[in-house]
Predict the structure.
Amino acid sequence: MSLLTLGACSADTGALDPRGPAAAETAGHWWLLFWLGLAVYVAVMALLLYAIMRARRQEDPDSSPPIDDRALFTVGGLAIPLLILAIVLGDSVRTGQSVIDPPDKPGVTIEVIGHMFWWEVRYPDHDVVTANEIHIPVGVPVELRLTSADVIHSFWVPQLAGKRDLNPGKENVAWIQADEEDVYWGQCAEFCGVQHALMGKLVIAQPEDEFEQWIADRQDPASEPADEILQAGMDVYFQAGCAMCHGIDGITDPDPPAGSPGPDLTHIGSRMTIASAIEDNTYGNLTAWIVDPHQIKPGVRMPPTDLDAQELDALVEFLLSLE
């Protein structure tokens, strides 16, 4: 399986390599806990070694320790732990508040709806709908409105922000910001079913002018193709039942039928990935996905599609033309 994280994304996709202010706050808190824990461990080991060595030197091992030792252990067992807990609590509250409130007013609002097992992405202020790939401008706080269409999912992009749950019937609000232009890997962080582990997504941070151009391009609806092969592919798209779950703005109704619709396909040809960001969007991968998606993601809700070679080729060519 060709995971895009091995190629296009940053080499280190972990939470300890933050690329945004929210993730940096979380990483800073983690390092505080790490260094405090390490200091406590070293101190305890040193005291243990001291006690062992002193016991060997004492003539009467049952004698009471001198008063200065009692004071040492009182301070080490009570005062210092209370001080450490106070530091951790204070920094936890500060970090929690900082990851809730963005430093500036969000410049973009994005709605993310979790499905089993993919991500619906909407830009309500721009009338743009896509799937599994979230485009944001670099250096701009982005408000995320999170909900679920079925079960509990969790939005997590380790280098940009901590996890936030997506609950059915409830909207949670979070924010992310990328300080560097890059492609960031994200993952569902709440077990949601058999394909939870392969419910990935990409956050694509780009300069603001490129982001605005991307929005403008996504606002253009598709049009019926003039090319004969592409026209045949569009016919297969309807005849094979693809339109029952996947909408194409300008060709189908504005919204797919109610139930469990699949991702919007209006601009699928311009997407980097398919299958919730686990396969590169190539002719071969898209063909394999259409023929039998369960070979790639067992348990996925999309059924296999029975087409002959000519129909399959026309359908794939038509989909890839939707840029």
